[in-house]
Structure formats: structure tokens, C-alpha cells
TrEMBL record, chain A:
<keyword id="KW-1133">Transmembrane helix</keyword>
<dbReference type="InterPro" id="IPR035906">
    <property type="entry name" value="MetI-like_sf"/>
</dbReference>
<feature type="transmembrane region" description="Helical">
    <location>
        <begin position="104"/>
        <end position="127"/>
    </location>
</feature>
<protein>
    <submittedName>
        <fullName>Carbohydrate ABC transporter permease</fullName>
    </submittedName>
</protein>
<dbReference type="GO" id="GO:0005886">
    <property type="term" value="C:plasma membrane"/>
</dbReference>
<dbReference type="InterPro" id="IPR050901">
    <property type="entry name" value="BP-dep_ABC_trans_perm"/>
</dbReference>
<feature type="transmembrane region" description="Helical">
    <location>
        <begin position="147"/>
        <end position="166"/>
    </location>
</feature>
<dbReference type="GO" id="GO:0055085">
    <property type="term" value="P:transmembrane transport"/>
</dbReference>
<feature type="transmembrane region" description="Helical">
    <location>
        <begin position="243"/>
        <end position="265"/>
    </location>
</feature>
<keyword id="KW-0472">Membrane</keyword>
<feature type="transmembrane region" description="Helical">
    <location>
        <begin position="187"/>
        <end position="209"/>
    </location>
</feature>
<keyword id="KW-0812">Transmembrane</keyword>
<keyword id="KW-1003">Cell membrane</keyword>
<feature type="transmembrane region" description="Helical">
    <location>
        <begin position="68"/>
        <end position="92"/>
    </location>
</feature>
<keyword id="KW-0813">Transport</keyword>
<dbReference type="Pfam" id="PF00528">
    <property type="entry name" value="BPD_transp_1"/>
</dbReference>
<dbReference type="InterPro" id="IPR000515">
    <property type="entry name" value="MetI-like"/>
</dbReference>
Length: 279, 341
């Protein structure tokens, strides 16, 4: 199955074009982060003429970036941990038991993933506000409310992917453990979970990325104190000035960890999708 | 999904089978039983599965199902700014809110219809082009060559990037006087004399579409790449032996084998893109020009600007019904074709 010269060259050309399309914005983000403010206020230049790291210093004081970063970190990690824990138990039940309502559960959970966020944004906003007024439980404008909301966003896909993973683990392993006298929970923790580590890792990354990148609910359910990066980054554009070099610097700083984490774990991700897709 | 007959070639399963053999080897007296799907699912009446599901069910109910029902109820109320503080006192108005939504002669109805049209066009173009780019890249990266791993990582980067950083970078590129796009078009290529506006007017739709495709096609690439791993090499070898060239292999082996993945992928892309809020919200800084006013952002703005949650909820319910209708039609159509085949 040898490649002809024409095939090879068309492959190279198409891949180069695609790579260019992906690279240009990424390059502009990096190069503009290295420019002083006056250089991003004039005509665009490909190469930073006066390279400086000043934007990486100034960005912390123009907006309270540190607080936004801390809020995002806290919300995304706690939401990811809870989401994955809940998903593990649910996926174990769906994968290993036949029970009344199993189909209904699977279909309902997956379909909520597809509903427009705007549909439950308005009621959720009103419920959080009124719950706070009536009982003093602060879910509106608090990180707790945001965490609870976000962990349900990643839940459906996490359950679906973990069910695929758990299904690919031979039942013989479970039975062997049960012969040894292990109960269902011990079987889950000592047999099934260790064999599904790649799936669990992939799902955790997915849950973290979902919470880290969410904009719609963050823009409505937070106030100045609980604001996350998704909304906070808009603060660099004031009525008089947009600090584009600082926006790019801040974007770079908050992107690099997630992108690096995702790329390092992408093969688990692909494996998880493959396991899910094979069903 | 279909394709159950072909065992996945992903590595986890192979590893697991090794464990399995180790586990059975340690107990030589035990009869080896094939691990079938029914082996562990003894039909016993037990509360345990429900207890395991309970946290997930409670959360889904509290954050998705109940708010959705509340939303449906809200769409029947006159829930304007006078009643938001104490919405138990909001008067019941039946289907009045829906009458406003469907009345194309009223300003609200006409704007909603325009936003709907924009969203349909946006979805069709973005999903179609993203799927094409993703499939092309995945097929071209199917066989090993030098630099493949680098390209794969690069192509996945837009998907891994947080939405707001990716889109805000594009906002910068699309600036009229300081952006990269106009610098290339006007100063370097000389294609236009006067730098055009990208974020207002007719061009804003094009800008929105480009950003959307840039962010969406890597997900299609990721899924198709995963799907390609389930195609056994023997099929390609057999096709090559029959003298099939690149296009023939693509048409007769790759695309038919990808069908189960594509069916789900296209549906998911459709729903995500149709509901897209983030891209226009960040790209245009909160309020989109009419040419790029996607429906989620439109409902959001008309709800929070006027604090008329009743009409906003009615619009959301109509949107949901539309999506359910399209999804049901799609599933029916694709299932029937599968049964015919």
C-alpha cells in the first residue's frame, strides 16, 4: 500500500494549511504578550520590536487576576473531584447491575447534556437567589453554587465514558474477587477502579476543563468576590483602553496548564472515546 | 452505537486481558469462564445499584430536571421585573408569552425569528466545515510519518484551550486598526484598500463562523481519530490488494466504518453549535451585532436586559422543543436507514 507522489504532496499541502490555521492565533497570542502596550495599540506587527515581559507583571494589578485565578482553580478542582466520584459510583451501577430504570437513567442523563444551558439558567438563577433569601444558604454569587452547577455539567459525559471503560473490564475479575469474599464496594475499589485508571484520569481532565472554561453560568451566578477567569478576563477592556498585551499574557498563563495537561493525557482521552464508541 | 462485532483495538482492553489471565492463573482449580456481559449481572433484587446512583440522580434532578420544569412553569407567568423579587406573586397568563414569541409582527417576535435564521445558517456551515476538516486531518494522520505526533498535539490545542482565551485572542486578531487579519489583508496582500470592520456589520457573521470552526474542528478530529482506531488493518490490506486507490479506500472502507461514530458526532456537534453562547458572547464582548446574534445569546440578552423572565423562558422552551424535534427526526431517519441496509 505505497503512497503515490501526488498523494504525499497533497497530504503535505493540506496539513500545512491546517497547521497554519491553528498556529496563527496561537502565535499572535504569544508574540503580543511580549509587546509593550504602545506596540499593540498601533498597526499589527508579526515580530515584537521591543520584546518585554512587562505585560506579565502588569496583568496582576490591572484586574485582580490572582483572585480570579484562585477562584477558578478552586471551583474547577473541587467540581472535578466531586463529579468524578459521583460518576464512578453511577457508572459502576450501570455497568455491573441490571435494575429497573437502568435504561431510563442512561437516556435521561445523556439527554440533559444536550439541552440548551439558557433553558435552566433563568430558573436556576431565580432558585439560587430565592433559596438564599429564604434560608440563608448562599448559592448565588458563591463558589459553592458554581461548584454544584459545574459538577453536573461534566457528569453525563463522565458517566457515559466510564460505563464504556468498566464494560471493557472482564467480569471474571469481579467474580474472582467475590469468590475471595469481597463485597461490591471492595470489588469496585480493588478490582474495577485500578483497571480503569486511564478512563478515570481522562474523565477528571474533562471535568476540570469543563469547569475551567465555562462562561454563561459564571457570568450570571458570580459577583466580584466569586468571579472566575472566564468573566474576569473581560476586565482588561475598559471604556478608554484595551490592554491587549496584558489580555494575551493572562490568556497565555491560564491556558498553558490546561493545554499541557490535556496534551499529556490525550491518549487516555482517545482510548476512553474509543471504548465508549465501541459500544 | 453499532459496530459491536468488532472488538476495539484500544490498548486498555488488551492490558486488562493480561490482568485477567494472571488472575485466573493464580487459582488453578477454578473453571475458566468466558467474560460475557451477563456473567456478573445476576438479576437479584438489591437496593445497592440505586444507592450507587443516588448522588448522580439527586444532582441531575436538582440542577437540571427541576429547574427545567420550573422554567416551563415560568414561561406561563408574567414574570417581569416587578415580580422577580417575589415570583410566587407573579400572575398566571397562560400562553400569552408564547403569543409574543410567535408574533412575527411584534419587535420581539421578529428579532427572535431573525436570530433563529442566523443560528440555523451558522450551525449548518460550522458543523459541516468542522466535520470535513476534522475527518480530513484524521485520515491524513492515520498512517505514521515523521512529525505526526507533533501535528496531532497541535491540532488538538484549540480544543484544549479554554473558550474565553481562544475567542478573546480572535477578538484581538479581528480589530480593525490593530488586528492581524486586516494587517495581512490590507498591508501585506493588498486585497482591499480600506480596512474592513469585522466585529460589526455583515462581516461579523464570517468572523463568528471562522472562530467557531477553529474551535470545533479539533473535536471532530479527536472523535474521528478514535473511530479510525477501531478499523482493522486487514480491511485496508484487502482493499489495497484489490488495487483500490486513496479515494476508493476512503469511500469503501473508511467512511462506512466510521458511520457509527459520525452519526453521534454530527448530532453532538449540531446540538453544541446550535446552543453556542460562549463564542459570540466573548467575541463581541457581551452583545452581538444583529448579523451574528445567535439564539442563546439573544434569549440571554432579552431576558437580562428587560428582566422579563417569562418571555425568556417561553423562548427557551420553544428552543428546546425545536431541538427535540430535530433530534427525534434525525434518530428516526438514521435508524431506518440502518435497518434497511
Amino acid at each position: 500500500m505505497r503512497e503515490t507522489a501526488a498523494e504525499r504532496w497533497s497530504r503535505r499541502i493540506v496539513l500545512t494549511l491546517l497547521a497554519g490555521f491553528v498556529l496563527v492565533p496561537l502565535y499572535a497570542m504569544v508574540s503580543s504578550a511580549l509587546k509593550p502596550l504602545r506596540d499593540v495599540q498601533g498597526a499589527f506587527t508579526w515580530w515584537p520590536r521591543h520584546p518585554t515581559l512587562q505585560a506579565f507583571v502588569d496583568m496582576w494589578s490591572t484586574v485582580p487576576l490572582g483572585r480570579y485565578l484562585l477562584n477558578s482553580l478552586l471551583v474547577a478542582s473541587v467540581a472535578a473531584i466531586f463529579s468524578v466520584s459521583v460518576a464512578i459510583f453511577a457508572a459502576y451501577a450501570v455497568s455491573r447491575y441490571r435494575f429497573r430504570g437502568r435504561q431510563v437513567f442512561s437516556v435521561t442523563v445523556l439527554s440533559t447534556q444536550m439541552f440548551p444551558g439558557i433553558l435552566f439558567l433563568l430558573p436556576l438563577f431565580l432558585i439560587y437567589v430565592n433559596l438564599g433569601n429564604a434560608t440563608g444558604i448562599a448559592l448565588y454569587a458563591s463558589r459553592t453554587g458554581l461548584i454544584i452547577t459545574y459538577l453536573t455539567f461534566s457528569l453525563p459525559f463522565s458517566i457515559w465514558m466510564l460505563v464504556g471503560y468498566f464494560d471493557s473490564i472482564p467480569r471474571g475479575l469481579d467474580e474472582a474477587a467475590q469468590v475471595d469474599g469481597a463485597g461490591p464496594l471492595r470489588t469496585l475499589f480493588q478490582v474495577v477502579l485500578p483497571a480503569a485508571v486511564p478512563g478515570v484520569v481522562a474523565v477528571t481532565v474533562y471535568a476540570f476543563m469543563t469547569a475551567w472554561g465555562e462562561v454563561l453560568f459564571a457570568s450570571v451566578l458570580t459577583n466580584e468576590d466569586s468571579r472566575t477567569l472566564a468573566v474576569g478576563l473581560q476586565g482588561y477592556s475598559t471604556q478608554f483602553n484595551v490592554y491587549w498585551n496584558q489580555v494575551m499574557a493572562a490568556s497565555l498563563v491560564v491556558s498553558v496548564p490546561v493545554v499541557a495537561g490535556f496534551l499529556a493525557l490525550q491518549r487516555f482521552f482517545v482510548a476512553g472515546l474509543t471504548a465508549g464508541a465501541a459500544k | 452505537m453499532g459496530g459491536a462485532a468488532d472488538p476495539p483495538t484500544a490498548s486498555p482492553r488488551r492490558d486488562l486481558d493480561d490482568h485477567h489471565h494472571l488472575a485466573t492463573r493464580r487459582r488453578p482449580g477454578r473453571r475458566h469462564r468466558p467474560a460475557g456481559p451477563s456473567a456478573a449481572r445476576r438479576p437479584r433484587r438489591s437496593l445497592l445499584p440505586y444507592l450507587l446512583l443516588a448522588p448522580a440522580v439527586v444532582l441531575e434532578l436538582a440542577i437540571h430536571v427541576i429547574p427545567m420544569l420550573v422554567g416551563a412553569w415560568m414561561s406561563l407567568l408574567e414574570l417581569t421585573q416587578f415580580h422577580i423579587r417575589d415570583w410566587s406573586g407573579a400572575p398566571f397568563v397562560g400562553l400569552d408569552n408564547y403569543r409574543v414569541v410567535f408574533d412575527v409582527d411584534s419587535a420581539a417576535g421578529a428579532e427572535l425569528l431573525r436570530s433563529f435564521r442566523v443560528t440555523v445558517l451558522y450551525t449548518v456551515l460550522s458543523v459541516g466545515l468542522s466535520w470535513m476538516l476534522g475527518t480530513t486531518a484524521a485520515v491524513l494522520l492515520q498512517r505514521p510519518f515523521r512529525g505526526r505526533a507533533v501535528l496531532r498535539a497541535l491540532f488538538l490545542t484549540p480544543y484544549a484551550l479554554p473558550v474565553y482565551t481562544a475567542v478573546i485572542t480572535w477578538t484581538f486578531l479581528f480589530q480593525r486598526d490593530t488586528g492581524l487579519v486586516n494587517h495581512v489583508l490590507v498591508d501585506q496582500l493588498g486585497l482591499v484598500d480600506e480596512p474592513p470592520f469585522w466585529l460589526i456589520g455583515d462581516n461579523s457573521f464570517v468572523a463568528l463562523l471562522i472562530v467557531s470552526i477553529w474551535r470545533t474542528w479539533p473535536f471532530a478530529f479527536l472523535c474521528v481519530m478514535a473511530g479510525l482506531q477501531n478499523i482493522p488493518d486487514e480491511l485496508y490490506e484487502a482493499a489495497a490488494m484489490d488495487g483500490a486507490g486513496f479515494w476508493r479506500r476512503l469511500r469503501s472502507v473508511t467512511l462506512p466504518m466510521l458511520r457509527p461514530v459520525n452519526l453521534v458526532l454530527l448530532l453532538v456537534l449540531f446540538l453544541w453549535t446550535f446552543n453556542d453562547f460562549n463564542t459570540p458572547y466573548v467575541l463581541f464582548g457581551g452583545s452581538a451585532p444583529a448579523e451574528a446574534d445567535l439564539i442563546s445569546l439573544h434569549i440571554y440578552r432579552s431576558s437580562f436586559q428587560t428582566w422579563d423572565f417569562g418571555t425568556g423562558s417561553a423562548m427557551s422552551v420553544v428552543l428546546l422543543l425545536f431541538l427535540l424535534l430535530v433530534t427525534a427526526g434525525y434518530l428516526l431517519l438514521t435508524n431506518r436507514r440502518r435497518n434497511d441496509a
